[in-house]
Amino acid sequence: MADQTTVLNQCFLDCRCMILEIAAALDRVDRAKNAGKEDMRLTQLHQAIRVLIDPSVKEDRSGRILTMFSDPID
Amino acid sequence: MYYIQPHYHGIARTTDDYERMAQAGVVAVAEPAFWAGFDRHYPGTFIDYFRQISEFEPTRAAQYGIRHYCWVAMNPKEAEDVTLSREVIAQMPQFFDRPTVMGVGEIGFNRNTRNEQTIFREQLELAIKHHQLVLIHTPHLKDKLKGTKMTLDLLRELRADPARVWIDHVEEHTIRAVLDAGFWAGMTLYPQTKMSPRRAAFLLEPYGTDRQLVNSSTDWGPSSPFTLQECAMEYRRRGHSEQELLDVFHNNPARFMGQNSKFTIRPLRLVEQ
């Protein structure tokens, strides 16, 4: 199994790029007309971003975030 | 390196794809019956479509040395029209004996509606009755989690043989339930949106690669058949051997579809000279 340094060497620049894409998209949302209007999708995006940096979430960020974006089962 | 592209919508693509796939090591494709992008009105349209993918499309692929197999089904999107669906389903068995037809697929849920469930159930029953392999489409985006659960519940109820059922389009929040229930799990790769080659390479690692299939979304929308090779490259980059790559990208499709005796491509084992 690769060590942390190797994994980060491989993925850091791509992650940085993807984070910047999200940052730019959220900047556009802030600059848009009616910015600040309640929208469930924005709430979901913010919740997902919190999962990304939550130190108690280990190894299943993708699954957690996908579940957050899913319709309830029941 | 050899690949089998197990979920490929050839009728939506030009022969440029076949040419480049052949150059990239693809030896076979399998084409499920799907939604063509618009809702069809007539049963005959579907029957001609099944003829196209079982008779004509293999000749296009053969020009590039690629073997083409297919599946027949009423797809989940158009399953909402129950009357039309039943007329199509009534004619499906005539295709089960065709030389390149693998089974019933792709069936399943699109928006998890009652009508979709009715037609999904009827097609599963048909497949079981005729001993056909089954390929299942799970919904995209927010409908996937619930749709996958409804799919597993239905398969359990009908006592489908897990070894003969492939549940496709799994993601991180659905793969475990599919594999734990004994079914084959397929990951469908997209150039943007939905599952990416890198995430798929990562998902091949924690659960073991038995019963995992990887395929590219290749249809009439933004898609590329080479996300399969991208995933393989990522998997190789993570230190997996050529045999491990062959096992995932060639042998697993061969094992699953080889349960139908018409699929004659066998798993490969590398031997050092």
Explain this structure to me?
The complex is a heterodimer of chains A (74) and B (273). Chain A has 74 residues and is mainly α. Chain A is built from 3 helices and no strands. Chain A has helices spanning 4-31, 40-53, 61-68. In chain A, α2 packs antiparallel against α3 (61-68). Chain A starts with a helix and ends in a 6-residue tail after the last helix. In chain B, β3 (67-72), α3 (82-91) and β4 form a beta-alpha-beta unit. Chain B has helices spanning 15-23, 43-62, 82-91, 114-129, 144-157, 175-180, 197-203, 227-237, 242-257; strands at residues 3-5, 26-31, 67-72, 101-108, 133-137, 165-168, 184-189, 212-216.
Give a summary of the structure in a few sentences.
Chain A is mainly alpha-helical and 74 residues long.
Descriptive terms for the model:
heterodimer; A: about 70 residues; mainly alpha; 2 domains; about 70% helix; about 0% strand; flat; B: about 270 residues; alpha/beta; TIM Barrel; eight-stranded parallel beta sheet
**How many structural domains does the protein architecture of chain B include?**
1
Q: From N to C, what is the helix and strand string of chain B?
A: EHEHEHEHEHEHEHEHH
Task: Decide which structural class fits the backbone of chain A.
Answer: mainly alpha
How far do the termini of chain B sit from each other?
A: 17 Å
Percent helix range of chain B: 25-40%
Distance between the termini of chain A: 39 Å
Shape category of chain B? globular
Q: Which pair has the most extensive contact? A: A-B, 15 and 16 residues
Number of strands of chain B: 8
What's the total number of strands of chain A? 0
Evaluate the radius of gyration of chain B. Answer: 17 Å
Average pLDDT level of chain B: 96
Q: What's the tally of helices of chain B?
A: 9
User: What is the 3D form of chain A?
Assistant: flat
CATH topology of chain B: TIM Barrel
Q: What low-confidence regions of chain B span 5 or more consecutive residues with pLDDT below 50?
A: none
Helix residue percentage of chain A: 55-70%
CATH architecture of chain B: Alpha-Beta Barrel
For the sheet with most strands of chain A, the description reads: none
- Please state the oligomeric state of the protein chains shown: heterodimer
